[in-house]
Write a structure and sequence with these properties.
259 residues; alpha/beta; homodimer; 8 helices
Amino acid sequence: MERESLKIVKIGGKLIEDEAKFSEFLKDFSELEGPKILVHGGGKMATDIAGKLGYETKMVDGRRITDKNSINVITMVYGGLISKNIVAKLQVLGQNSIGLSGADGFSILSKKRPAKEIDYGFVGDIEKVNSGFISSLLKQEIIPVFCAISCTEEGQLLNTNADSIAAAIAKAMSEKYKTELYFCFEKQGVLADAEDDNSVISEIDTQKYQQLLEDKVISDGMLPKLQNCFEALETGVFKICLGDFRLLKQDSKFTKIKL
Amino acid sequence: MERESLKIVKIGGKLIEDEAKFSEFLKDFSELEGPKILVHGGGKMATDIAGKLGYETKMVDGRRITDKNSINVITMVYGGLISKNIVAKLQVLGQNSIGLSGADGFSILSKKRPAKEIDYGFVGDIEKVNSGFISSLLKQEIIPVFCAISCTEEGQLLNTNADSIAAAIAKAMSEKYKTELYFCFEKQGVLADAEDDNSVISEIDTQKYQQLLEDKVISDGMLPKLQNCFEALETGVFKICLGDFRLLKQDSKFTKIKL
C-alpha cells in the first residue's frame, strides 16, 4: 500500500522573531494538506533572556556551552514561550496542534554528549524517536509542534540541534510515511554566489555536492546542513527542500536535495 | 454502562519547589490506577524570575496584575520549565504524559477578565474545556499534565487559577467519567483550628459548611476554594478531597467534601 505523505517543516529563530514573515509562513503552513509536523528553533531569544537573568553565555573554542542555567532558560523559552504561542497561533488558523519537547511522550530520546576536549554541558545527541507516539497524534489529526529539546532516559532535558530533530523525526517516520523535509532559513536556498541572494541552486545531488565542495562554494554553516540532508535521504527520507520563509508556497524558489 | 473513574489531581507551586516531597508525591501519583490528569500551579518561581528580569510585580488593591511581561514569564515558567520537567520525571516513572496549556488542543478556552474597577490584565475566566481532546489522550493512556494557562479564541494565552482549571476539567469530563478531584496544598485538609495542623475535619457537607462559616472557622483563603468545590459537586463531579502532598496515599488524612 502506498505510504501517505508526511511533511516535516523546520523553522529557525530569526523567522519566529519576524512577526510579518512568521504570520505569512504560518498561513502557508496551515494550507498544507495532509499530515504535517512543525519543528522550531529559538534563535537569540533564549540568549537575550539568559543575559537579562545575569547568566553569562559560556563559550569554549567558539562553541556555546549549555550549563544548568542555560538548559533551564532554553526549556522556558523554546518549550514554553515560543512553543505555546506557536500552538495558539495555529489554533486560531484552525490547525489543531500541541507543543512538545522530547520529554512529552518520551518522543525524542537522547544521550548527553560525552565530554572530550570540550564538555558541551546539557547538549543531547538523539538516539531514538518514538514514531508510534507521533503517529497516534497524526492519526487524530493533531499537528505535533516540536521545540529543540530532547530528553534522556533519566529525565534530563537537553539542548538539541533543531535541524537534527527535524531530520531524526523524518527518518523515524519514513517507515510509515513518505516523508518530505523542509528547512526554512534566511536564504531562498543554497547559493552559488554568497554575495548574490538570487543565485539559488535549484537542485543538488551527490555529484553536484562534490563539485560545489571542490569549487569551495558551500559556506561553513551550510556544510553540516547538507551532510545531514544526504544522510537523511540515504536512510529513507523521500524529499528534502531548503528555502526561506516562502518555501511552502507553490511558486517559491528553493533548493531540492537529491541523492 | 458504569462510567470509568478519572482522577484529577491539582498541586501547588510550593510542593513542586520541595524536591523531596515532590518526588514522593510523583511516586504516589504514578501508582494511582486508571486514567488520571495532573494540574499544576507554579508558585513563586514565576515571580522570582520576573523579578530577576527586572519586571516589577504590579499590585492593585492587593491583587496581582498580569501585564504583558508577566504572561510571558508565566508561559515560560509554568508552560515550559515546570511543565516539561514534570513530564520528564513522570516518564522516568513509566508514566506516559504530555505537558499542556489551554492552547494545546485548544483544550481550555477562556475570556480575558473584563476590566471594571481593576484591570487584571492577561487573566482568564474559563469558558469551555475540550473534553473530546482530553478523552482521546486518555484513551491512548497518555496522562495530560496541565499548567495554569488558558487560551482565548483569538490565541491569547491567559494566566488562570490552577484550582479553577482543575475544577473545570473535572466538570467537563463528568459526562464521560466518574470524576474524582484531589487538591494537594500545605495542610492535611481543612482545619478546625488554624493553629493546630492536626485538627483536620474529615468530612464537610453543605450543612457542615454553613456551620463552619457561622463559627468563622474557615480562613479567607479557604473560602473560595470550598465554594468552588461545592459548585463542582453540584455540576457533576463525583468526589472531592483536600489534603497535603501525601493525599494520594491509602492511609492519608484528608478532608472529603460532599453535598
